[in-house]
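I have been asked to look over a protein record a colleague put together. The record follows directly below this note.
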Amino acid sequence: MAKTLQKKKKKKIIEERTLRNKILKKFLSEESFLPEMVELMFRIYNHKGRKYRNYWMLEQFTLTFDRLITENNSNNMNESKTIEEKAITAGYWIAANIISSNNANNSKKENAVNAKKYLIQLRKANDFEQFSKALERIMFKYNVQLNDDVQLALDSPKEQFLKIKHHILLKALSTLNKELNPISNAKNEDKNGQQ
């Protein structure tokens, strides 16, 4: 029994190091590591005992670096930035509604855990149609109301759905992970008051 636990622990450490090395390699190559950071946030979300303490810092580091990469590689920088901001807003509202939902009078933590299947569906979406259906399910289940401006921004760029999906998931998972593993740090509020 003890050897099995040691093997599992060693395997998790190796997986974390591999993921960390992928992120570092992309950072040094000046490539976006947004998908890898979403993967890290999902691992934290799925693992009951793991507590990374500063989700806000990981999120802000990833978003800031991704914006720099996008600015250097994009001709249509303002439109891309607007779409990213709308996706981040959508991710925040999805997480906020999940946490505050009234499912059988569950606690906020239970609500965050119970949303796993919907977030997995969103994460596994491989094309725009699957992504739209998964997003629609989440919005219906948790009564997420996005204003028309945000909805149109999320619907229009079919070729950018992966980036939108990753931004939504990063913000939603960051917010849910903070609920599952709270820390008290008033400096971690961004300019919108979102933690």
